[in-house]
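Hi Q.,

Before the meeting this afternoon, I wanted you to have the adenosine-5'-diphosphate prediction in hand. No need to reply - just skim if you have a minute. The sequence and ligand are here:
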Amino acid sequence: MVTMETLITGVEPPILKLDGIEKSYKEGEGTLPILKGCDFNLFAGEITALVAPSGAGKSTLLHITGLLEKPDKGEITLGGRACGKLDDKARTAIRRNDIGFVYQFHHLLPEFTAVENLMIPMMIAGVDKKEARKRGLELLAYMRLEKRASHTPAELSGGERQRVAIARAVANAPKVLLADEPTGNLDPKTSHYVFEALEALVRATGLAAIIATHNHELARRMDRRITLEDGKIIELE
Ligand code: ADP
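Predicted structure with the ligand bound:
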């Protein structure tokens, strides 16, 4: 994307920018601060691992980044657009078009086939049915699932379901992929294979990704590693 900033500095601006994100939850009479001023820049093509102990605020950070929750303070800028003051309709549109989510549990629709699960978000975004099927089949082939296109989730293995969920997350060609322990429910071998497929897809599409994981071996393979310490984002070596 050529912006004024690119023209002047020759440097691409970050695809995702977090500035001073704060979030507390109510706890009895008081409040429980979780995020206490998170700053972060993510550039196109980068895969970042988010590694932190349970309860540190990883899911909260991903939900806020993905515009599913609002921060108490701070700004999220996606593709150069500040999202903090947008109304719910605009936030939903950005979530649908620019952000892909993968969760620990696949959340595929059980009554639909693998390819239909990919077609649905594309059709909601306005892609016609024929084109949605074509792109869905291409993405499944990329995930080496072409022979599973007409299977329902119940007819797929755990690793296959998660690969379909990953393909679905990128179906609308988002700018950023957010994954919350996407291989957390899988055995080590399957987890490795699913992560490889995820990495290949991110590399091929040039999108940026933040992947929360407990798996240090997977985290080491990513471009960057960050953690949450006392409610702040710290970059790890
Ligand atoms: P992680 O993903 O790192 O395990 P979470 O972001 O899920 O951490 O949670 C961080 C803390 O915030 C936890 O103590 C959790 O109990 C609390 N929390 C998360 N969501 C809510 C909520 N909706 N209401 C109250 N507390 C919450």
